[in-house]
Every structure is written in C-alpha cells, then in structure tokens.
Hints:
By secondary structure, this protein is mainly alpha-helical. 64% of the residues lie in helices and 5% in strands. The protein has helices at residues 3-18, 21-28, 31-37, 55-68, 115-128, 133-145, 150-161, 164-177, 182-185, 190-197, 206-220, 228-231, 237-244, 250-263, 266-279, 285-296, 300-321, 329-350, 357-376, 390-406, 412-423, 448-457, 464-474, 481-493, 504-521, 524-536, 547-557, 564-579, 585-601, 606-628; strands at residues 44-47, 51-54, 72-75, 81-86, 94-98, 101-105, 444-445, 477-478. A 4-stranded antiparallel sheet has the order 3-4-5-6, with helices on one face.
Amino acid sequence: MNKFNIEHSYFISGALNVIPPHLRGVVLSDSNFCKKNGVTTDAEVTLGNTASFSRSILFKVIREVFSTSFSSSILDSNNIEWSISILPNDKSVICIERQGTKFKSNVFWALMNDIELLTSIFINEAKRRNLGKIDIEQWAQVLSNTKLNDDEVTEITSDLELTPSYIEEQLSLELRNGSNKIKTLVPDDFRYYERLVGVYSDSCNIYEYSTNELSQHFDSRVNNGVSYLDVLLCSQESVSVSLAEKILNKEEFISLANAAIKIKDPISMIGCFEVGVLKYLESSESKLQELFDCLCEAEMLKSLTLLCSMTVFVDGELARLKTFKNKPPFYRRLASISQASLITKVALEQGNEFLDIEKWAMEERGVLFYCQTFIDLRDEPRWLPGYLSPEQLRDELLGRVHNVCHKAQDSAFCTRLLQDLTNSSLIKLNAFLPGPLEGNTEPAKLPDYMSKSLEEGMNNQASLVAFRSLINSAQFWKVDEKYVELAVTLLENAQHELRETGDKESIFQTLNGLAKVAALVRSKKLAASVVILSRIYRVYLNVNKEPEHIMGLGLVAAAAFDDKDEWAEYIGQWMTELAYLPLEAKAISPLRNMLEQLCILEPYLYYTCGRPLEILNCLEKDLISHTSD
C-alpha cells in the first residue's frame, strides 16, 4: 500500500468515526462507496431471540453449503454450535438448527453460486413483490455479471423488503405477536414510499399527479393489472380515476370489490365504488349497492377512527424523519394515508381492536402532525389539521359517493343513491370541504346567491353574524378579495371591537374563522386584523391558561403570507407576544414544546422564533427549579 492509499484510508476511517452513527450507517450501506474506498463491513445476523452470528462468517458457511450441498457447522456469538444445511425439497431454503431448535429461511438465496438459479429466484421474488421493471433490470444486470459480496447480498434482500407487500407481511406478523415496530409501521426509507405511491416529478397538485406520475407508477411495475394494495391509495377521487384505467376487466374489479367489502377498509371501499361507477356501472349495480351500504354503516366509524389515528401517527413520524423534505404536502399526505390504510387493512383483517387509539396516536405523534400541517398551510392553505376526524372523513367519503353519482345522473341507480343520501340526511355540508390532498386545489366559483348573501351580511356591524357567510363561504368556494376588504373595513371602522359577541365561544369562532379566511384568500390585511383582535380579546379567551389554541389560530392566519420571510416574521411576532404574557404554570410546557417542534420541523423559524422559544425555556426552567425547592 503506497503513502497515498494509507493517508486515504486514515482519512476515511477518521471521517466515519466523526459523523453521527445514523449517518455513518447510511454511508456504510452504500456498496459503491465501500468498494471505491476499500471499506469492508460486518454486521450481526440475529435469528429471532435465540442466536446471533457474525454476518461474514455466516455468509461464508452458507456459500459453502450451497456450493457443496453438504451440511456444515457454525458457532454463534455465545460459542454454541449450530448446523447449516439445505432443505432437501427446496434448494433455496437454508436450515439452521441445533438440538431442539430449527430455523428455516429462504432469505439467503442471494448467496447461491448458480447464477442461472439465482437470477430465476430473484425474478420470482421481484414479481411477488411487484417490483418496478427498472429495478428488476438493474439487479438482473448485477446478478448476471458478478458474484455478490456480503454488502450486495444484504442490499438486494433489503431492497426487496422495501415494498408494500413485504411491509404488509411484517405488519401482519407483528400484529399477531402483539408488538409492532415503528420502523414497520412507518418505514424510514424514501424508496419504500416511491414504490407505494409512485415517484414525484413536478406535478402541482393531486389531480396532475394522478394523471401523470401515478399513472406511470402503475405502468412501471412488472405485474400488469391492479392489486388490492393499489386500491389503498384511493384517498382522493383523482386516484380512483387513474386506477380505473388500469383495471383489466370486470372480473378483476369484482375481486377487488369483494375483498374491500370483506375487510371493510374505508379507502378501499370508496375507491372500488368510484371505479365501479366510472367503468362498470351497468353490469355491477348489485356490487356497488353492497359497497354503498357498507360505507353507510354505523360500524364504519370504528374503522375510520383507526384510519385517522394511524394517519396522525404516520404523518407525524414522517414529519419527524423529514423523509419528504422538499416534496409538496399533498404527496407526503398521499403516502401517509396510504400507509395508514395499509395498517388499517391488516388490523381489520385480523379483527384487532385498539383501546384509546386516538389518544395514543395524539400522545405519540400528535404535536408533530399538527405542527407539520400548520407549516404546510403556507403552500396548501385549504386543509387544516382539525379536518382529520372520523366524522369528517365519513362525511368526505359520502361526499365522494355523491360527486361520482352526480357525474352519472343518467343512471337510474345513481339517481336513487343520490336520493337515499338526501332522504337519510347522510350528506352534509362538511362533505364538500377540501380533503387532505386538496390543500392547494382551485376552489369552485362562488355561486351568485352566496355573493348576494355576503354583501347583505356585511352591511352591518362587525360581529360573528356579519362575518358568518364570509367564513363559511371561503372554506368551500373562491371568494373575491372585495368581500375580504369589506370585512377589514368593518373591523377598522369598529376599531376592531366585535358586536354581539359577549361569550368566549363566539369570540373564538370569529377569530378562528377570520384566520381561516385570511389564509384561504391570502389576505395580509385580514391577517393583521386578526393580530389586533387577538390582543383585544385575550382576557375573554383565557390566553394565559390555554395559549396553544391561540398559537394555532396565529399559525393558520400566517398562511396569508406565501412569502417565507413574511410568513416567518408573522409567526415570530405572534409567538413573541404570547411568550411575554403572564402564562399560567401548566400552560408553559405545552406551548414551549409545540414551538420547539415547529422550529425543528422548519428551522427557518428559529430566526424569528428564537427569542420567544428562549423565554419559554427560561420560564420552564424557573418553574422546575421552584417545584424542586
């Protein structure tokens, strides 16, 4: 080894020792990096809770067994001897055993010497996992050209595990054993989500994404047609439209619908219903009726509770991991809800019931979910974290039933379902609120009758009654800025004093509603008025006791500013004013925690929120000090 190589080796070794363990693991998992720099790695392979082996030694012995077909022995980390042999009736399965204990595994096939058999097994595994054609071609090329080293063996098996079908199997296994790993519930590798919901390119919203990237995703996989895992993606109507084009025939649709009815997974059922109406309406009315009846069942609320809870957990964890950094919120939410649907599907199949699942999800990842959604509002202001509830999701699903049936009004069947929705009072106004993937979609034009209502309503004093039409309309339709200007003028003329709002609830409703309008219409003037109103009515709103609610209100109003600097400045001002208030002792920690998480998720906010965060930290330390004394 020459001097340059020695110095290079020392440099690589030193660098690996300095960087954080997680980053070191990522670097060492890159086989190209290891090859280029002459880095050799070893790992520990564990069999259940029984034994562990050095990877290099285990792989060496298994290679010998595959090569000679004779059994061999190996010592585990506790110096206990084990025998390794090939299963007689399946040459790809390895048996690792000692007295009273036996493990059979088919995960070591990548150590085989027979390249033809090795490639054949890989192709079968890839098809079983529905891997993408490009991934298969790349690995097939590697397998045909060279014998895999230990790192490459680990890499190819790990790559096959980054698939929805494998995660589904692991979820099922762990649920049966009564203990799920977070890494199984929410895989931390971005490639997994690209295989789950497709590879994002440059679409501006979910409609464009479904038409372009998602359609390409369905076409890129080795298996033709649609699997049940694909139907779990139908958390928005445009996904169902894209999926309908890929279903090969009516028999495939009926099979998917039967599975959805049996499992009673909400997303799968609405997806199948929309696909059926769009593509197989005349020949599948009875099956569509079954799907409709299931969606209307009171029991559906339990499934929706589980789905919402898992969405909070998954989306909060993905926010913590920053897996979707620099990707649009709708894309991350598509992945979050699809993964939550997969978890829900597995749980429903096994008949699992979870006590206090909503409470658990909120305690584990609720703050992260809320903070990330507040941050998302700057890009996608139409969907709020409070919209994620079982009741609202049920209304949304029935709203989707209404919408797809409305497109097929010529059908007597769809007309009857629309009547059933109306007569049974199943369809509510909330059914037409934006869904979680529609935060940046263009709202519908404001109807003429609502324009008249807005003008009449705000020809009065500044009050909740006067602003109610504006607040309600802005959540459903595109409201002209002139109506917002009129609201601001009313507030300014009244010196921001609200009339007919003597109780806490009506005051909060007014401020919260105006904050939403400011965000939806991107009105900086109205956002400024919300600041003034929050100052005037602090006493009424018990801000000192429950500041996190007012914090949320400010984070919503901040979405009026799409410019990042202005957005951060608004939040910084809002939080500074809160931090200087005489907060009650029990209110300090939740507020500090929420602000800290907000800054961690969006470090840009440290610039404007550093001072209030430090104030809250000092207050919390003083509180702890006084408590200990």
